[in-house]
Design a protein that fits this description.
The complex is a heterodimer of chains A (about 200) and B (about 450). Chain A is of the alpha/beta class. Chain A has one domain: Rossmann fold (3-Layer(aba) Sandwich), CATH 3.40.50. In chain A, about 35% of the residues lie in helices and about 25% in strands. Chain A is built from 5 helices and 7 strands; from the N terminus they run H-H-H-E-H-E-H-E-E-E-E-E. In chain A, strands 1, 2, 3, 4, 5 and 6 form a 6-stranded mixed beta sheet that branches. In chain A, helix 4 links the parallel strand 1 and strand 2. With about 450 residues, chain B is an alpha+beta fold. Chain B has one domain. Chain B has 13 helices and 10 strands. Chain B has a 7-stranded mixed beta sheet. In chain B, strands 3-4 form a two-stranded antiparallel sheet. Classes of the chains: A alpha/beta (about 200), B alpha+beta (about 450). Chains A and B meet through strand 1, strand 3 and strand 7 of A and strand 1, helix 6 and helix 8 of B. Strand 7 of chain A pairs parallel with strand 1 of chain B.
Chain lengths: ~200, ~450
Amino acid sequence: MKKSVFFAFALISLSFILSGCASTPQVTRVSSDTQTDLSGYWNDSDVRIVSDSIIADCLNSPRVAQFEKDTGALPVIIVGTFKNDSDEHIDTSIITKKMEAAIINSGKADFVASKSERSEIRDERQEQQSWASEETAKAIANEAGADFMLIGSVKTMVDKSGKYATRNYYVYAELINVESNKKVWMGSNEEIKKVIKTPSAKL
Amino acid sequence: MTTKDIKIVLPLLLSVFLVSCASVAHYGVIDGEVAGGNYAGAYASVQAAKDSKYREIDAVLYNLDAGMLAHYARAYPDSIKNLTGAERGIESAYTKSISQGVSSYLVNDNTKEYAGDDYEDIYLNVFNALNYYHTGSLEDSMVEIRRVGNKIRFISTKYGTAITNAQKASLEKSSDIPYDPKAATVKFSDSALARYLSMLFYRADGKRDDARIDRNGVRLAFANQPSVYAFPLPSSLDAELDVPKGKARLNVIAFYGLSPIKTENATRIPIDAGNWVKIALPEITQRPTAVARAEVLLDSGEKFDLELIEDLGAIAAETFKQKAAFIYFKTIVRSFAKTTSSVLLEKGADKAEDSGAGLLLGVLSLGAQIYAEASEQADLRISRYFPSKASVGGITLDPGTYSFTVKYYNGSNGLIYEERFQDVVVTAGGLNLMEGICIK
């Protein structure tokens, strides 16, 4: 082997070794809609798929549209409990926040602050009674009451045998009339089914 | 191979199996702190020992030890972090390292990444459920309880193929050690403790029907698995779902004793003059506890017994059966291979016409037998700080603030330890679950 070829070969080998020993993490920016399935657990792609389908379903609901025709006002919605009934620690608030944003931006409904958000706003209003000018202080006991409550849940069904596992996600959302308890809309997404194959061996 | 080569190879092999032994020296200090009820000190000690006493391949073991000690020290977020880390480690250890696999066949199982025992994988979720409850998240507690159910369902299929393959290999070696296939069948399909906690969580969530299903699940667990529930059903069970409106239920769960450890059972089978097969197998050994019973004494005068609901030690032994069967087969294959090389070298020495070559092969044969004897060590790794028993009880009270003492007694009814709970707010409709610990 010629000396120059040997040196080139050694240099390439060294660069491969050194690239594997980089002291800083390698970061690659990807588009937010890139599907990244690493562990098989609930991830951003699942949130997107579920939210998009349920939101579209809710916005196209004829009963929700009928409310505006009947009352002449946009329906006011409050986010209730979106339960995690799965076997994973899922932050369901991401789903409800996405739904809230999409429904508000569609102009088809208004949202009022949820139970957990309200106390902070009420504290502020109470403070205004003492400290803000009379013209700008907001009146107490003048909150908008919600017409509907959005509730839902995420459930999982898991099966496993050897290195194969399947995970099915069932996401349900419902809009309930606060006054009559009638359910005016129900949406579900059962699209997410994952088959996870765990490798048997590694080096 | 020359004498020079032998001088190089033998120390190398010796160093490999010496490195393969996990350090246990640090447990003395931690065990002492645990026995004295200094759980915060024990947790600090295990953290201090992390880098020096736990090998990289023992990360699961560290997380289990640290997670349980953090739980007893009531450092619940730390416990969640460690136990979740252990669970992830157990999941990822499903993918076996080829290099570790090879060395485990050449040396022993201590060279492999510790992948946790089944009972550890199950109960880490039970304790994480309690961790989440103590941090105020019932929903996350229920997530952990669902994970317990899923894991128990999959235990029976976990080792199926591996045992069949290992069994074939073992039968080819015609072992003299009898093997009972029934002994490898796990008779554990549901955890009464997990069901009981689930019942309490559902009751607190207002899901009475789900709570009723779990109460019946506790009954079924006792009825269907007499080998691991060889004691009476807690008498307070029915009252749990019979709380009058406006009344409050105080529940107490007490964990006591220490989970079993593994000890080595070594057998030597002579196969030739001067050669033997050493079979070193890990066995579950229970650690006795002085606690025989526990009761709760309220300052207001009422008292109730805490009754045994789960014998974690018995379940550890039961769920280890399948893994033990797999270890058994693998150990036989490895041990026979090591000794066979010694026998072949010895036969070569006998046939050698050259006296120098004969001597060399004889020395190698002896070296191979010594290596087999010294390197054949059982993998005794197991987490040390799970409790061995769980007892439960409850009392229906008027809502209010109560102070009480949990008292632990030995078999002669002598008081061993008492734990004080001061000014506990007991509310109607909510879950008022307190946890007592006597890991002695």
